[in-house]
Amino acid sequence: MGSQKEGIDAIDLGDALRAMNCNPTLALIEKMGGSKKRGEKKITFEEFLPILSQVKKEKDQGCYEDFIECLKLYDKNENGLMLLAELQHALLALGENLQDDQVEELFTDCMDPEDEDGFIPYSQFVQRMMSNPVTFE
Fold first, then answer.
1. Nearest C-alpha neighbor of 60 from the set 109, 95, 102, 10
2. Using alpha carbons only, how large is the chain's radius of gyration in Å?
3. pLDDT tens, residue by residue, 81-137
């Protein structure tokens, strides 16, 4: 056999951790050995287990309640609804922002249709997003 190392590409480390119910930041993924280019390095299963263990101990990852508290800031009527446009803006422009195609994919997979006034129920969106993590190519 060839000398190619078995394992996942380091660019996929974040997706693998998210599949294991973790919510690591991009900075944490990089610190744990994630790479930005495909083919730079591989992470074996034996190397992944201690990374997973360490990430599970990290305090710097959001949970359901954290995301809901954040989105409540946009819930001006305190009725569990927020403007879809505001959520889209937050995902595209704030913090570890996503790209347009990533937001589109996330909305397709996790979003209820907006009502006639442009509002969406944000708690269902967060539940779906966290229970069925979307992985981006």
1. 95
2. 17
3. 999 999 999 888 887 777 888 889 889 888 889 999 999 999 999 888 877 555 545
